[in-house]
Amino acid sequence: MRLLIILLFTPLISFAHPLTPADSLPVRKPFTLQRFYAPASLIIGGLIANGHSEESIKNELAESRNRHIPRFRTHIDDYMQFSPLVVAYGLDAFGIRSKTDVLNRTVILFKGEAMALTTATILKSATHTLRPDGSSYNSFPSGHTTQAFAAATFLNEEYKDRYPWMPYASYTVASSVGLLRVANNRHYISDVLVGAGIGYLSMKVAYWTHRYKWGKPHAKMQVVY
Description:
Shape: globular
Order of helices and strands: HEHHHHHHHHE
Radius of gyration: 18 Å
Number of helices: 9
Number of strands: 2
């Protein structure tokens, strides 16, 4: 069971791509399918885990949780899902400049958040899946995990060129939110994996499609991944 959990969550902390220095305009690389490997692996993994039989991956993990930590409950995941956004704007406020100016960065954030949360909300309504604790029929996908991975991707895009360790820190926080949703018995592993893929992809698409027409552009050029 431990090996299964490791295999399922390995994609959650394996996003790291180099970027060039800050204060520059984007030069778009040729669009390739490789950009979709990470979110596709998360979403496909979640769909594979989303069986309805008692022996399905999601139900086996839920049963294991109920056996070992039946009374576990914390609300820290309610706050952790937004923590990467606090860090992103907090670093900038303390003079540690991000890749993108504040106006373009905020527009990108709103676009990414809108795509992520709208997609998650539509799927919740369409699938009408009962939560593992039986509280409501909006389990799939995990909204907390969607938000956490969208926020982590935003923080990562803005600061990974300055801090090479930022991908590990940001996605570890996001992965912790997903794990806590399962530990809290609020979501199945399938909900978490699909939510992670949606959040990650939505924020990436916001960066890929942004035209940087807000405010005054910078003079240098950089590569956008």
